[in-house]
Amino acid sequence: MTQRRLFALSGHWLDRGLSLVCLALGAGVLMIAKGYPTSAGALPMILGWLLMGCGIGLWLFPGKRADMRNVRIGGLLWGMAVFVAVLWLFASLGADVALFVLFVGCAVLSGYPPGLRLVATALLFVILVGAIFGGLLGVPLPGPVFALFSA
């Protein structure tokens, strides 16, 4: 029954809805990126324009109805739960904790086995993002780990 509902949402109207989300997100990223210096705002500007381009492409060239029979509802719900948790963690604890949870959640949902190697990789990912944004670009990101890299 749920698969029939997903099937009805796929295709033309889903692509139009996603295109509006991409356009709004791209416009938001572009507006926020204008507040940073040119060196720090270059990557967000590129990402904002890419999101806008994806939104225009989805609006102009919507896809056909997709076969949603093989979509696992449990994985879809876990993915949405991870997304909501990452947004809440970003707002309450900081970007470093949220990026750690995002990395681990995406890896586990993609089939990577949880374990010490995954935790170590996620920690190195968070440290690398903090070093690039805080150390090299001078963009302070919120969070206890990122505070170590901001000047």
Task: Give the secondary structure arrangement, pairings included.
Elements: H1 2-9, H2 12-33, H3 38-60, H4 73-92, H5 95-109, H6 116-136
What does this structure look like?
By secondary structure, this protein is an all-alpha fold. It has two domains: about 1-70; about 70-150, no CATH class. It contains six helices and no strands. The longest helix is centred in the first third of the chain and has 23 residues, at about 40-60.
Overall outline? flat
Give me the strand/helix succession: HHHHHH
* Number of separate domains: 2
Distance between the termini: 54 Å
**Rg, nearest Å:** 18 Å
Sketch the major β-sheet.
none
Number of helices: 6
Low-confidence stretches: none
Structural class: mainly alpha
Q: Provide mean pLDDT, rounded.
A: 80
